[in-house]
Amino acid sequence: MPEQRPYGNVLPASSQRRSAPGGGGASPGGAKVPQIPYQRPRKGRISHIVLGVAFIVLVLSLLALGAIVFSYWQGQQTYKEVAQEAYPTAQDVFAQSEVDLEAASESIDWDALRAINPDTVAWIYVPGTPVNYPVVQTSNNVTYLSTDFRGGHGWLAQFGCIFVAAENSADFADRNNVVFGHHMNDGSMFGFIDGLFDASKFNATRDIYLLTPDGNYHLRTFALLRCEPDEPIAQVTFASDAEYTAYVQDKIDRSEVAPSEAVDAASITKTFMFATCDHNGRDLRQVLYASVVESTAPEKTGAVSDARPAVEAAQELAGS
Asked: Which end of the chain is more exposed for a tag (fewer CB within 10 A), N or C?
């Protein structure tokens, strides 16, 4: 019977014979000696590690993208549901060539809106854009940056709410009324403002409707500018007519687009400014100004004078 050796044909070291690289070795008795197995360079292992890390990064990126897409969808659904519940006729009302401002808010269920959110003060509609939202106001300019109309918080409430500055009167009695909204990348909320820096789009999107339980406003835009986040631009009341007119004229002069017709600052007696963040590389704010064309709201007089610091809430809008 042949001699049994452990590990097959591998001979004890004393009986092995060194052979030239790549050649076959043989034992003194003529038996072949197996060669040392070839080991792959470590470079292959590193490549596998790099590919593994890249795959993990890709998966995490896809998950993050999915979360963002889902949060956008969730926000859109929230406000579509609110609009359907509280103002289902909005599309029909504003599809008319001439909007009946007196009747524009008749079908808004203000009680239903306040049952959902007691901070409701108005409804805003901008023809030709996704803007068809309730408007709220509370005692600060932070809460509604990350709280949606139904009270949702966190990453699913990235839309926040359209809200009036806490410094303003809730009944829009001030000469300048400041309204904030996030700049969403899909054009919703106040994301539509970004496109208005194109003059043709600006002039095609001049009308804004702000509806309230006490009366309605038909607004027409007249200026659009970018400003620093700490610029004292959100002034809500003024010491005199002359001071207010100078304020309006400054915005006309600084506007980055021109309306199709000339605007006389002296003829403007009440304004609304719509502020959002700018997504064009610098930490700026976009501010759209509109004046009152027609109103069914009772005449109101605000406080005497108050030069407020600029859009503190807008400073928090970065990343919206």
From this structure: N
Query: What's the pLDDT band for 84 if we cut at 50, 70, 90?
Result: very high
How is residue 113 written in tokens? 């809106």
Contact 99, 124 (CB under 8 A): no
- Strand partners for 25: 33
Say if residue 64's pLDDT is above 60: no
Token pair belonging to 100: 């009946």
Distance CA 232, CA 303 (A): 18
Long-range contacts of 78-82 (CB under 8 A, 24+ apart): 78/148, 78/149, 78/150, 78/152, 78/159, 79/132, 79/133, 79/148, 79/149, 79/159, 79/188, 82/113, 82/116, 82/133, 82/134, 82/149, 82/150
Number of CB atoms found within 10 A of residue 11's CB: 18
Question: Which of 225 and 306 is assigned the larger pLDDT?
Answer: 225
